[in-house]
């Protein structure tokens, strides 16, 4: 009997799960509330910035779902889960049966407590934009395009987290004078410490974006955004990027255990009902919710195996959070503020960099890199693979990379590898022509020609720096 | 009187002149277009093998009980081999005997070897070491373009591009004269990108050098294509007119944003963007892959991913742009075209194609029904040796399996389990040393034959000196065996064999029927299929290139707590392949193997430059001096493969399409060797 799997949500976790279920003996239905085929949500700020075409966001087209026998229903909202009947009810009253239900409902943007943000009729103030969906992005993009026709357009971004900084940079690159308001005492407060936040604020100011930290937006007026310190920031646009919370209303109403997210076990099944699973932003595993794609995808891979009837369990994850914003360099590996371990840290406010490694048992268990990502590729590998480092390595990883200094060539150093000619043999020649004739140096790959030119005729004049 | 000929080593097949009757002298042949007189030290010293005391001049038979060798006459040796073949086939059927060839053999030998297997022995069990060279690129080329010719244009076209992307090639060391093209390209204002976990001498000549985690070149290609799509930099007209499959490929790269690529490849997102921007902003882009990208269990998909980049930019088939593979072995190209590959007949025909079988059987004068079907790929064949349903006898030509096979300890055990191992070589290679019969053959400059270089240019290696008495050509060995097995006749004069090869290849994808020795002499080599391919159409029936959506899977063996480092292998300038030739040339330095590692790792295990280190994988262990350099990724170590040892470590995971073993990455552990005393 083919199991019916119903997936509520059509975001990045859902599409990954569908990929993992291709060819499995299950009948999959995806109920997605957005109107677009699943797309790459995390690139929306790049679309806003203009560096990524909106057409190229689609992760899987409707045709792909059809080709793989997966029913994709867009613009479809689920209002109720009937656990007894094992059915979900859609907004139009239609009921769909399931053997397994997957909640991939994601997160919904948090509305900060700002007076005047929501009007009496429940709609947002016309200057205010959330930024979570492609629809949000398109609306904001249209507003920006229109504003750019007016003199000195201004925007305020409420929320100085990863998304807020990405949006702020995107608006700024587009030519909108942008300011960032963050309630905590430094930027990116949930990922990095005050020193790193300070480096970022300085970078943003250098790029023309003013930053207000430890300040809350309290009121939306016709003049702009009023802060709790009394100042009013005049603006044409307000973008809300103050984070999100797991979308758990359906699960709650169905009586599933919900704390911050839908509480799941290592099979990503609800601890209340093992026929119902949850993954991605809406799920809570071992008291952690995520908000990032990589763990959601790891969960999707595990859940696909579970739904195929294979042994698989989810054992938590390692996350790497990267800021995607032109001119700002941030990578946060794991919980750089709270992870237990020894901290090796270098802050250089003069050059604008802050790097912190948290090391436990020789392993990098968390890290924050701001303003200098020169070794991000290596540090990420060491973190992901749990490589045990020697005692000197964490410190050395934060020093400038060792480069072999150009040394004076000793006579026995090989200069022309193709013909096997030493510096001494070249020095003993009077001219390049003689050298070629006598030693065949430069006649292979030709790479040593410059060095040969400098060395010929320098016999006795040792310690000529070459390089 | 100088003889114009070609170097005995790599696929560049540099032209050179030889003078002298006994020990030839090498001099430049400036008129030959590929290298224009340039040679590396291997080429200059190529004659150093002449007069070597290690040269074999008499057939040798090994007594298994005592291990002692005794010289026998050619007739005795060939009779013994023929008897062994008959015994094996009587017991196990036609497939009881296997043939193993090499990518260094001339076209004539490769062709005759395939004919020997199919028409004289009737065995399907033939493959060759080229399977371990560029088979992943070959498989990808056939799937994407309908045809595999390493470079579908002359090498010199490299100078005409604007951005040259070298994926896993260290040509400045492996084929030094080719590096001149990089310099000329850059003098013209073009730029060079090198992708290699080590910053090699080739990377030192690059404008952008990226050092990915071994086994992640595919993810990098996906990330580059993602950015090209995002920037609207793909050539939609070209894709619509000349390709199929673009929609799937486009969708498949949507999840490969730069930061994800960074986490997978260890290349920073900024560098991925820099590469994509370079490609997006250049009128002509050329992508060339080599073993670094190809010798993986995901090698053929990796090549397909880079081909997709070249196709998406609308480059394939344009002058100064496109995709190519830098073939490795001297006759890597020709060796894969004329029938020593398990699934092929001459002319790059498929052995399971009835029309091809009928045509080739006609040329050979045998019944098409009598030809066997496809056999095992090289590694699968070696794994089967001596097993219940595998061959019990094997003939080896032009290959030193004990050094060059992956998981070599295991492979050596398989070779030792044979009832009969016959090796044709001109020195006592490590493989010959465990054979039952060793047949001394002629070498380069003692015989004539054609090679097909990395550009698909057929060149003529001409006989310059008289071979030592006692040595015979592989062609004579093959014909001698055929007579004893009462098969159809085999020609032994190279020009005659070449003409037959031409007839057998006529009408096939690699059609040599119009090429003659005289044309090769007159024209500085002859390209099969024409100088430049794909200008107006690809070789699939619909004329379009096919794009395949491929996924990153990564190396088969990932680092873990016990084996925390990546091991990669490769070549050094002064040596060639298994070193059977170059290690015996006195003018070439032979410092032995080494383990290249980063100072961070050296500090971690407490070893200094030059001190011995032990390196282990799940398959074996070797020790060698540490070479501590800052030019390698700190999570990766490198060992050259010219000596026994490196391939005891390597992984035998195979690419599902090409059957290429994963030479280029496995998980390893390092430790300092404590010297007693």
Automatic annotation (TrEMBL), chain A:
Q: Which Pfam families match?
A: Pyr_redox_2
Q: Which cofactor does it need?
A: FAD
Extract the Gene3D superfamilies matched here: FAD/NAD(P)-binding domain
Residues forming the FAD/NAD(P)-binding domain are 4-300
Q: Name one GO molecular function term.
A: oxidoreductase activity
Q: Which InterPro entries match?
A: FAD-bd_OxRdtase (IPR050260), FAD/NAD-bd_sf (IPR036188), FAD/NAD-binding_dom (IPR023753)
UniProt keyword list: FAD, Flavoprotein
- Check the record and name the PANTHER family matching this protein: NITRITE REDUCTASE [NAD(P)H], PYRIDINE NUCLEOTIDE-DISULFIDE OXIDOREDUCTASE DOMAIN-CONTAINING
The protein's name in its UniProt record: NAD(P)/FAD-dependent oxidoreductase
Per the UniProt record, the source organism is Nocardioides glacieisoli
């Amino acid at each position: 009997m083919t199991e019916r799997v119903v997936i509520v949500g059509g975001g990045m976790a859902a599409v990954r799960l569908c990929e993992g279920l291709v060819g499995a003996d299950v009948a999959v239905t995806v109920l997605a509330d957005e109107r677009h085929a699943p797309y790459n949500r995390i690139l929306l700020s790049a679309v806003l910035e203009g560096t990524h075409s909106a057409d190229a966001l689609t992760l899987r087209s409707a045709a792909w779902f059809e080709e793989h026998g997966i029913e994709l229903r867009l613009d479809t909202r689920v209002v109720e889960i009937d656990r007894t009947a094992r059915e979900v009810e859609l907004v139009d009253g239609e009921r769909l049966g399931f053997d397994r239900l997957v909640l991939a409902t994601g997160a919904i943007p948090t509305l900060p407590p700002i007076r005047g943000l929501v009007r009496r009729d429940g709609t947002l103030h016309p200057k205010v934009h959330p930024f979570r969906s492609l629809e949000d992005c398109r609306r904001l993009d249209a507003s920006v395009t229109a504003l750019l026709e007016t003199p000195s357009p201004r925007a305020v971004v409420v929320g100085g987290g990863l998304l807020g900084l990405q949006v702020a940079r995107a608006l700024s690159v587009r030519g909108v004078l942008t300011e960032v308001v963050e309630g905590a005492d430094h930027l990116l407060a949930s990922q990095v410490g005050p020193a790193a936040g300070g480096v970022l604020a300085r970078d943003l100011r250098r790029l023309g974006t003013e930053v207000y930290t430890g300040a809350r937006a309290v009121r939306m007026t016709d003049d702009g955004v009023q802060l709790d310190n009394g100042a009013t920031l005049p603006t044409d646009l307000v973008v809300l990027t103050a984070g999100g919370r797991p979308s758990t209303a359906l699960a709650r109403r169905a009586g599933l255990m919900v704390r911050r997210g839908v509480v799941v076990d290592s099979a990503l099944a609800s601890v209340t009902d093992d026929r119902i699973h949850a993954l991605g932003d809406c799920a809570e595993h071992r008291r952690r919710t995520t908000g990032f794609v990589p763990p959601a995808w790891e969960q999707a891979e595990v859940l696909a195996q579970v739904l195929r009837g294979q042994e698989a369990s989810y054992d938590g994850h390692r996350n790497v959070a990267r800021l995607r914003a032109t001119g700002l360099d941030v990578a946060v590996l794991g919980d750089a503020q709270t992870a237990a371990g020894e901290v090796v840290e270098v802050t250089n406010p003069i050059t604008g960099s802050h790097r912190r490694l948290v090391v436990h048992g020789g392993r990098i268990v968390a890290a924050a890199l701001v303003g200098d990502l020169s070794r991000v590729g290596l540090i990420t590998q060491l973190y992901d693979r749990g490589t045990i480092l020697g005692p000197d390595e964490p410190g050395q990883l934060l020093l400038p990379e060792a480069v072999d200094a150009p040394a004076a060539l000793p006579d026995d150093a090989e200069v022309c590898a193709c013909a096997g000619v030493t510096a001494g043999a070249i020095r003993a020649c009077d001219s390049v022509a003689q050298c070629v004739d006598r030693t065949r140096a430069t006649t292979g790959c030709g790479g040593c020609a410059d060095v040969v030119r400098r060395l010929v005729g320098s016999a006795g004049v040792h310690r000529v720096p070459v390089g | 009187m100088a003889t114009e000929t070609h170097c005995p080593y790599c696929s560049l097949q540099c032209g050179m002149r030889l003078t002298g009757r006994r020990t030839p002298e090498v001099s430049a042949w400036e008129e030959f277009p590929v290298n224009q007189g340039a040679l590396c030290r291997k080429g200059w010293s190529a004659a150093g093998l002449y007069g070597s005391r290690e040269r074999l001049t008499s057939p040798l038979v090994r007594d298994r009980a005592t291990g002692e060798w005794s010289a026998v006459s050619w007739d005795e040796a060939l009779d013994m081999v023929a008897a062994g073949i008959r015994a094996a086939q009587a017991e196990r059927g036609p497939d009881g005997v296997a043939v193993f060839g090499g990518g260094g053999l001339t076209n004539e030998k490769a062709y005759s070897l395939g004919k020997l297997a199919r028409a004289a022995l009737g065995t399907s069990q033939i493959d060759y070491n080229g399977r371990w060279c560029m088979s992943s690129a070959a498989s990808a080329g056939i799937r994407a373009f309908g045809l595999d010719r390493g470079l579908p244009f002359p090498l010199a076209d490299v100078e005409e591009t604007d951005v040259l992307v070298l994926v896993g090639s260290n040509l400045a060391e492996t084929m030094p004269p080719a590096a001149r093209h990089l310099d000329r390209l850059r003098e013209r204002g073009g730029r060079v990108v090198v992708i290699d976990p080590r910053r090699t001498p080739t990377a030192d000549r690059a404008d952008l050098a990226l050092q990915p985690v071994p086994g992640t070149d595919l993810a990098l290609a996906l990330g580059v294509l993602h950015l090209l799509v995002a920037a609207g930099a793909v050539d939609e007209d070209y894709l619509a007119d000349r390709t199929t499959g673009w929609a799937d490929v486009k969708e498949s790269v949507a999840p490969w944003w730069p930061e994800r690529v960074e986490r997978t490849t260890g290349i920073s997102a900024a560098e991925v963007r820099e590469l994509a921007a370079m490609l997006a902003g250049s009128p002509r882009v050329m992508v060339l892959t080599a073993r670094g990208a190809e010798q993986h269990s995901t090698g053929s998909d990796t090549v397909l991913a880079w081909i997709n980049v070249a196709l998406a930019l609308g480059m394939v088939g344009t002058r100064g742009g496109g995709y190519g593979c830098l073939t490795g072995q001297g006759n890597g190209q020709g060796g894969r075209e004329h029938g020593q590959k398990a699934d092929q007949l001459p002319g790059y025909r498929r052995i399971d194609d009835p029309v091809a079988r009928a045509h080739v059987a006609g040329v050979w004068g045998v019944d098409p029904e009598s030809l066997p079907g496809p056999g095992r790929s090289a590694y699968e064949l070696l794994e089967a040796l001596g097993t219940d349903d595998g061959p019990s006898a094997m003939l080896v030509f032009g290959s030193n399996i004990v050094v060059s096979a992956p998981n070599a300890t295991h492979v050596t055990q398989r070779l030792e389990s044979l009832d009969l191992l016959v090796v044709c070589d001109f020195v006592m290679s490590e493989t010959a040393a465990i054979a039952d019969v060793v047949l001394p053959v002629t070498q380069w400059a003692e015989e004539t034959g054609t090679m097909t270089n990395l550009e698909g240019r057929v060149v003529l290696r001409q006989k310059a000196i008289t071979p030592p008495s006692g040595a015979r050509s592989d062609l004579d060995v093959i014909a001698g065996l055929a007579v004893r097995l009462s098969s159809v006749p085999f020609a032994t004069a190279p020009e005659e064999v070449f003409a037959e090869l031409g007839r057998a290849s006529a009408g096939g994808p690699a059609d040599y029927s119009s090429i003659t020795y005289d044309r090769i002499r007159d024209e500085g080599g002859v390209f099969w299929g024409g100088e430049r391919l794909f200008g107006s159409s690809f070789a699939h029936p619909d004329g379009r290139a096919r794009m395949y959506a491929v996924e990153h899977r990564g190396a088969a063996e990932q680092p873990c707590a016990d084996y925390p480092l990546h091991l990669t292998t490769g070549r050094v300038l002064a040596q060639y392949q298994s070193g059977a030739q170059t290690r015996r040339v006195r003018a070439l330095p032979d410092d032995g193997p080494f383990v290249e590692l980063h100072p961070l790792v050296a500090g971690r295990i407490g070893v200094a430059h030059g001190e011995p280190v032990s390196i282990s994988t799940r398959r074996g262990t070797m020790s060698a001096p540490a070479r501590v350099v800052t030019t390698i990724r700190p999570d990766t170590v490198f060992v050259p493969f010219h000596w026994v040892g490196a391939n005891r470590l390597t992984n035998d995971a195979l690419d599902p399409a090409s059957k290429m073993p994963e030479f280029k990455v496995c998980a390893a552990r390092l430790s300092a060797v404590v010297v007693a005393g």
